[in-house]
Structures are given as structure tokens and as C-alpha cells.
């Protein structure tokens, strides 16, 4: 088990579930997506802080709580198709793809 797996699990437990997010599909999706792979290498130590982080082209990756909250609000099912506009880092799209049948 690598350190990022542990940090990801802690993020889900303490930043998402502890703040009232209870949709198990969303918690599982966020648990499955390695956020550290969507940010610049020099920022990986901050991957599981609940804050946005800068990525390329003056963009940011959204904070984990916001990604989880927006995903939960969609009430997705495996048959759903999602158009993710403004993909940026691709992290939110990857989380959505863990639940929805198709993500564009």
C-alpha cells in the first residue's frame, strides 16, 4: 500500500464523509481515482489537501470536496451519460467515469 492510497483514504474519511457526504458510489469513486496523477509532480505532496491546486495554463484542479459534492448532486447511475465541460486536469471527469456509463 503506497502513501498516496493512505492519504486518499484519509481524505475520503475526514474531508468528505465527515462533512456529510454519504453517497457510497461517490465515496468509492473518489477513493478509486489517484488525484496525485492529475497534478504537477512538484505538487504531489499536496494532492490530498482540501484545496484547489494550480495546473497548466493558469488553470486549477478543483478541491476534492467540491468535486465530490458536485458528483453527488448529479445522483448518477451506471446508465447515465455525462458531458464534462471545462475538463482542465481531467480529475473530475475521472471521478465521474467511475460511476457514469459514459463521460465526454
List the helices and strands and how they pair.
Blueprint: H1 3-16, H2 24-32, E1 53-54, E2 60-61, H3 64-74, E3 81-82, H4 91-97, E4 102-103
Parallel strand pairs: 3-4
Antiparallel strand pairs: 1-2
Helix pairs in contact: 2-3, 2-4
Task: Describe the model.
Strands 1-2 form a two-stranded antiparallel ribbon. It has a two-stranded parallel ribbon with strand order 3-4. Helices cover 39% and strands 8% of the residues. The chain has helices at residues 3-16, 24-32, 64-74, 91-97, and strands at residues 53-54, 60-61, 81-82, 102-103. A hairpin with a 5-residue loop joins strand 1 (53-54) and strand 2. It has one domain (3-103): Rossmann fold (3-Layer(aba) Sandwich). It has 104 residues and is mainly α. The radius of gyration is 13 Å and the shape is globular.
Helix and strand string, N-terminal first?
HHEEHEHE
Number of H/I helices: 4
Distance between the termini: 31 Å
Helix content: 25-40%
Low-confidence stretches: none
Would you tell me the overall average pLDDT? 96
CATH class: Alpha Beta
Which second-level CATH architecture applies? 3-Layer(aba) Sandwich
* Helix vs. strand class: mainly alpha
State the major sheet: 2 strands, antiparallel
- CATH topology name: Rossmann fold
Spatial strand order of the main sheet: 1-2
**Strand percentage:** 5-15%
At the fourth level of CATH, the homologous superfamily is: Vaccinia Virus protein VP39
How many structural domains does the protein architecture include?
1
Molecular shape: globular
Total E-strand runs:
4
Amino acid at each position: 500500500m503506497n502513501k498516496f492510497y493512505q492519504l486518499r483514504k484519509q481524505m475520503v474519511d475526514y474531508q468528505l464523509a465527515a462533512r456529510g457526504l454519504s453517497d457510497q458510489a461517490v465515496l468509492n469513486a473518489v477513493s478509486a481515482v489517484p488525484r496525485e496523477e492529475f497534478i504537477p509532480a512538484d505538487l504531489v505532496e499536496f494532492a490530498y489537501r482540501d484545496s484547489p491546486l494550480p495546473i497548466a495554463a493558469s488553470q486549477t484542479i478543483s478541491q476534492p470536496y467540491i468535486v465530490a459534492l458536485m458528483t453527488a448532486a448529479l445522483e448518477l447511475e451506471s446508465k447515465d451519460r455525462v458531458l464534462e465541460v471545462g475538463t482542465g486536469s481531467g480529475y473530475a471527469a475521472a471521478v465521474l467515469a467511475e460511476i457514469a456509463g459514459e463521460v465526454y
